[in-house]
Amino acid sequence: EWLVRKSGLGRSTIGDLVNNTERLPTQRTMKKILQALRRIDPNIKSEDFWDI
Hints:
The protein is mainly alpha-helical. The chain has one domain (2-43). The chain is 50% helix and 0% strand. The chain is built from three helices and no strands. The radius of gyration is 10 Å and the shape is globular.
């Protein structure tokens, strides 16, 4: 729920990314997720979550 509020993304988008490990987010979605998570840890990188 925190990530939904902080990222501005929908609950279904976040849920789908969590439950479907083969799905990759769009650049825009990835940017929103990373910006929200960097509030907690500024060193988080996209490679920590996705093989890109």
